[in-house]
Design goal:
Elements: H1 16-23, H2 26-29, E1 38-47, E2 50-57, E3 60-69, H3 79-92, E4 99-103, H4 106-113, H5 130-145, E5 150-154, H6 162-175, E6 193-197, E7 200-204, H7 208-224
Parallel strand pairs: 1-4, 4-5
Antiparallel strand pairs: 1-2, 2-3, 6-7
Helix pairs in contact: 3-5
């Protein structure tokens, strides 16, 4: 028997009848499969207290990358590995090519959008994942100076798009990387809170969820009196 965690993945062949099929998919309709440049699929995974990022390049299996995302001591979130995946793609992309980056996490793209163009004042001081976001901004700046286009496109998750599914598999592999090889591990100076959820202890910085947990606990103590 094979690995029960291993999922089936299909490959894209742009010939004969398959051309019509893939051009009718979400990526095809967005113009992805006809893009004159490099196409990257990225994904992140946050599960069981660990985070992983994955990145793949369309029709270049040797370009697959994954990473274990650190700083779990301050709590885990889906956004952190999703930002990490974008770093992997930008680092993989040559400054001699335009790139199309397909991401299924809207929150990560919104965090980056604040730094694009001439809008309101953006700051890293209050960004929860400033260490990774700063790296993204620097990499994008390099691409702008090189005169290369970078398109970050939101796609739907778990819809069978091969490039998205492959990135998802790589993100899961990233979670399995050893503690010694984690990336983005530097702690901040913010307080960390522990919240008990059933038999599980969850660590987090101060968030609305932590605040609500304290309120629920305070209400339970009042009722107990």
């Amino acid at each position: 028997m094979g690995n029960p965690k291993q999922k089936d993945e299909c490959s894209v062949r742009m010939d004969d009848l398959e051309w019509d099929y893939w051009m009718g998919s979400e990526v095809g309709q967005l113009g992805g499969y006809g893009f004159q440049g490099a196409i990257f699929g990225v994904n992140g995974s946050c599960k069981d207290g660990t985070m992983g990022s994955g990145c793949c390049k369309f029709q270049e299996d040797e370009a697959d990358k994954c990473a274990r995302v650190g700083r779990e001591e301050e709590g885990t979130s889906s956004n952190r590995p999703e930002l990490g995946e974008i770093v992997l793609a930008l680092q993989s992309a040559a400054l001699s090519e335009d790139i199309l980056l397909l991401c299924d996490n809207a929150a990560a793209l919104c965090a980056i959008k604040k730094w694009v163009g001439q809008g309101g004042k953006a700051t890293l001081a209050t960004a929860p994942d400033a260490d990774i976001l700063q790296e993204i901004v620097c990499l994008l700046k390099q691409r702008v100076r090189a005169g290369r286009a970078t398109f970050l496109i939101k796609v739907k998750s778990h819809r069978g798009e091969p490039i998205n599914e492959r990135a998802d598999t790589l993100a899961e592999e990233g979670r399995e990387i050893s503690d010694d090889n984690k990336r983005w591990v530097v702690r901040t100076d913010q307080l960390t809170f522990e919240v008990q959820k059933g038999n599980t202890t969850v660590r987090s910085l101060w968030t609305n969820s932590v605040r609500n947990a304290f309120r629920r606990q305070a209400g339970w103590l009042n009722c107990k009196r």
